[in-house]
Amino acid sequence: MEQLAPHEKLFVDTAFTEDDENHGQIGCVECHGGNSDDPNWKTAHKGVVKDPTFPDPSKACGDCHENITENNQHNLHVNLAAIKKTVGMRSNPAKGVCERVDEGRQNHCSSCHSSCGQCHVSRPESVQGGLLEGHVFKKNPPMQEVCTACHGSRIGKEYLGKNKGIPADVHKRKYFKCSKCHTGDEMHGDNNDCANRYEVGNGPKCLDCHEDIYDEKAPNAKQHRLHKDLLSCQVCHSMPYKNCYSCHVAKDPQGNAFFETKESNMNFMIGLNPLRSQKRPEKFVTVRHVPVDKNTFDFYTKNGLSNFDQIPTWKLTTPHNINRQTPQNKKCENCHGNADFFLIEKDVRPEELNANKNVIVPLSLLPKKIAD
Amino acid sequence: MKSYKFLVGIVSVFVGSFLLFFGNQPAQAAESESQCVICHTSPKKLIKITREIAKSNEGKSATESKSKGEG
Fold it and tell me: What number is the average pLDDT over the span B40-64?
């Protein structure tokens, strides 16, 4: 996404200031502070808060939108609980070491949070910010300037069909924006302390729209009924997706935090469901390698992730490049009697075998070849 | 009766004019006095200020990200 020029990032449209029904009646100072009577911009900005909605939006938004701001602490876009939990589980518990790992997490991983303002008023700070449409409040955040600006390589490119040779998601071709499936209720959280996005109560399900796929007379009903609760929808309907194998974080001599991801590839892997539950009962799901290795926090401390094997590096994933026909669903024998699409032992790095023992598909569980 | 109606008419015109004139005054004054709105709605002023900021930051350590690879 192209960056805005410095003055474009700060430009306020009079369409906003004159719109009394969409926050235009609220004085700038009421949310941002500063001195609106001072003609000297340097002194006028003393005490100005760029994003008055982070970390606590209760003052700026809560008076009118209390039902949303009361969930703020549990909102995964704000608290990044999934990262905190996974880094914490892998972290070396020794005193002095886990603190250094946590410092690394806060310096690097936690900078990618969002807030009310960084979805509805501006681009997120993690992509250099800049007001959306001159500070006009956007009820539905624009997809490419907000959602895929952050969720780029692993959602945006897949959904928009920007990976060479891989078509866009069928829902994109029907002009669906993210908010068509991911509603405000899901984005704002359900006020429960969720460890990851799959735990959020009001997340989308394919069946919300495709409710009749198991009906006897539905197209392809036989296949859908045969594989019900055995395979996630993505196992048959997603295309190859991005897998990253490491991410190393550090600071330059000036103290600026940076990261480096090295190896990545496009791949498609079916593994055992590591988060099997009533909500996600499927035995086989698509799995994606996440950007982490044992040395991710070496800049901060040696052996920081000594409990690396606690959780898989191949995680449950729901890729956003859904297609009706895919390489794996063209013929039964692509999966039955064929290990190519499955995450088996040889696909996993030797040093990660233990971490992924619950995800790797044993040869004995591969679908049997169908008799002629 | 005629003079009463005339008096009511005069008073109504006076009150209406008063409200029209002074009723809008505070809002217009507030708008015209907000330096935030004056600067932030003017691309010309913003360009001038952001150039000033860039100039004052010259020579300071670069903050561009040295990050490599896809995030």
Answer: 87
Choose the closest CB to B69 out of A5, A35, A262: A262
* A42: confidence class by pLDDT, cuts 50, 70, 90: very high
Range A227-233 average pLDDT: 97
Chain A hits for B28, Cβ within 8 Å:
none
Amino acid at B51: R
Tell me which residue in A17, A153, A261 faces B37 most closely, judged by beta carbons.
A17
By the CB < 8 Å criterion, does A42 face chain B?
A: no
| Alpha carbons A38 and A29: distance in angstroms, whole number | 12
Q: Tell me if chain B has a CB within 8 Å of the CB of A252.
A: yes
- Residue A169 DSSP code: P
User: Can you spell out the DSSP letters for A184-245?
Assistant: HHHHH--SS--SSGGG-TT---GGGT-TTTTSTTSTTHHHHHHTTTTB-HHHHHB--EEEE-
Q: Which pLDDT score is estimated for B68? A: 82
Q: Quick check: helix, strand or coil at residue A307?
A: coil
Average pLDDT, rounded, for chain A: 95
Contact A34 B40 (CB under 8 A): no
Q: What distance in Å separates residue A179's CA from the closest CA in chain B?
A: 22
ipTM for the whole complex: 0.85
Mean pLDDT of chain B: 72
CA distance B56 to chain A (A): 12
Residue B27 confidence (pLDDT) above 50:
no
CA B30 – CA A95 distance, rounded (Å): 57
User: What span, in angstroms and rounded, lies between the C-alpha atoms of B66 and A149?
Assistant: 18
Closest chain A residue by Cα to residue B46: A7
A20 has a chain B CB within 8 A of its CB = no
What six digits make up the tokens of A248? Answer: 């190393």
At A371 the pLDDT is 79
In chain A, DSSP assigns E strands to 241-244, 248-251, 257-260, 264-267, 270-272, 284-289, 314-316
Mean pLDDT to the nearest integer, A315-325: 97
Residue B28: its pLDDT value, please? 43
